[in-house]
Write a structure and sequence with these properties.
Bound molecules: (2S)-amino(hydroxy)ethanoic acid, manganese (II) ion
Radius of gyration: 23 Å
Low-confidence stretches: none
Distance between the termini: 16 Å
Order of helices and strands: HHHEEEHEHHHEHEEEHEEEEHEEHEHEH
CATH topology of the largest domain: Aminopeptidase
Structural class: alpha+beta
Largest sheet: 9 strands, mixed
Shape: elongated
Number of helices: 13
CATH class of the largest domain: Alpha Beta
CATH architecture of the largest domain: 3-Layer(aba) Sandwich
Number of domains: 2
CATH superfamily of the largest domain: Zn peptidases
Mean pLDDT: 97
């Protein structure tokens, strides 16, 4: 890597300003961001991103899953691009940083290379992946999953939100259903900068997480059916209370998560009770289950335990149970060459780092199936994320972006050598 490239640093203030600027699109009163996938707010931030990348001299490709690829040309157009990126959609009560720093640090990387007049060997691309969060349209990482061949386009288009609107309709509606076939887009490498969304880096005083793997995760949907009845005149032993049975099931799911400590997690995040009237015994509930662990075998055991315990509770409560697994994302190891590039970049920049497995899911987990991939983590305050109070420090975000820049330039130098050999 040239001396000029070695000394290059991103513009920390400009990066922070773009994060604060885009945080206004969907800003919430508590300082977070609500920008659900394929909403009008998602369209607005996508338009902002496309405009900023065009101004940075990029060509724009949008594929038929709405993934946006902003390409900065390199010397050798025959080389597949080195890509960076993440997602601009958020949770309903999300923060300013989850996903967003991965996309905007990519834009900052382009701007820095332009100012320095550095021409890379390979093209550089910044990607905004559609529907990483999976909050509005399950499962998560849907569009990067289609890109990696994990889901069909038809499956993705048919996914519906709780109001019955489909992914395909909403993608069309916001004008981001591109022409390019999703997936026919080779990459030389992919790097994703993201906040850790956990407490480890902050607790250990580390600034960079060298992410080696993403843990496995499985999602389920549960429907419990009992019988609506009068809250006042139905004796307790006669009830078929779907909500009470669900409460017992939720406690059992939590116990399975604790049983497989220290790495297992189990969460029920969404529940709906019908008819949801204070003087009617609930006859039906719908709820979701999210379980995660670094080892697939443990996830399989947790799934067995949850299945048998929920059936036993349904039996004892006189209610019916429908339990369906709607997503299975096995643990993913990242490519050694890319992980090494991240580790060496942190070392050369004198940044305290440690290896870490990602507890959260990321688009990089799917992209790793089709391109050498790795991630860079930076701390967030108290590890709090998926929360409007999510907070990262400007100097940590800048440090992560400098590691991203350096890992990309080191990968480019390696590709250039290979091209000359
Ligand atoms: O669920 C996840 O881990 C990610 O935030 N979509
Ligand atoms: Mn994210
Ligand atoms: Mn998230």
């Amino acid at each position: 890597m040239s001396q000029k490239a070695t000394n290059l640093r991103i513009n920390a203030e400009r990066l922070w300003d773009t994060i604060m600027e885009t945080a206004q699109i969907g800003a919430t009163a508590k300082g977070g961001v609500r920008r659900l996938t394929l909403s009008d707010l998602d369209r607005r931030v996508r338009d902002w991103f496309v405009d900023a990348c065009k101004k940075a001299g990029c060509s724009i490709t949008v594929d038929d899953m709405g993934n946006i690829f902003a390409r900065r040309p390199g010397k050798n157009p025959n080389l597949a691009p080195i890509a960076v990126g993440s997602h601009l959609d958020t949770q309903p009560s999300g923060g300013k940083f989850d996903g967003i720093i991965g996309v905007l640090s990519g834009l900052e990387l382009l701007r820095t290379l332009n100012e320095a007049g550095i021409e890379t060997e390979a093209p550089i691309e910044v990607i905004d992946w559609t529907n990483e969060e999976g909050s509005r349209f399950a499962p998560a990482m849907l569009a990067s999953g289609v890109f990696a061949g994990k889901f069909s386009r038809e499956y993705a288009y048919a996914r519906a939100d709780r109001e019955g609107k489909s992914f395909g309709e909403e993608l069309e509606r916001i004008g981001y259903r591109g022409e390019a076939p999703c997936g026919a887009h080779p990459l030389s490498a992919f790097f994703e900068l993201h906040i850790e969304q956990g407490p480890i880096l902050e607790a250990e005083g580390k600034i960079i997480g060298v992410v080696t793997d993403v843990q496995g995760m499985r999602w389920y949907e549960v429907t419990v059916e009992g019988e609506d009845c009068h809250a006042g005149s139905t004796p307790m032993p006669m009830r078929k209370d779907a909500l009470l049975a669900s409460a017992q099931m939720i406690a059992a799911i939590n116990a399975v998560g604790r049983r497989h400590a220290p790495h297992a997690v189990a969460t029920v995040g969404l529940i709906e009770a019908q008819p949801n009237s204070r003087n009617v015994i609930p006859g039906k509930t719908f709820f979701t289950i999210d379980i995660r662990h670094p080892q697939d075998a443990v996830l399989a055991t947790m799934e067995e335990e949850i299945t048998s315990e929920l059936n036993a509770i349904a039996e004892a409560s006189g209610v019916s149970l429908a339990l369906e697994r709607v997503w299975n994302s096995p643990p993913v190891p990242f490519a050694k060459a890319c992980v090494d590039a991240v580790r060496e970049a942190a070392r050369d920049l004198g940044l305290p780092s440690r290896e870490i497995i990602s507890g959260a899911g990321h688009d990089a987990a799917y992209v790793a199936a089709v391109a050498p991939t790795a991630m860079i983590f930076v701390p967030c305050e108290r590890g709090v994320s998926h929360n409007e109070l999510e907070k990262a420090e400007p100097e940590h975000v800048a440090a992560g972006a400098d590691v991203l820049l350096r890992a990309v330039l080191a990968t480019d130098a390696r590709l250039a050598e290979g091209a000359r050999a």
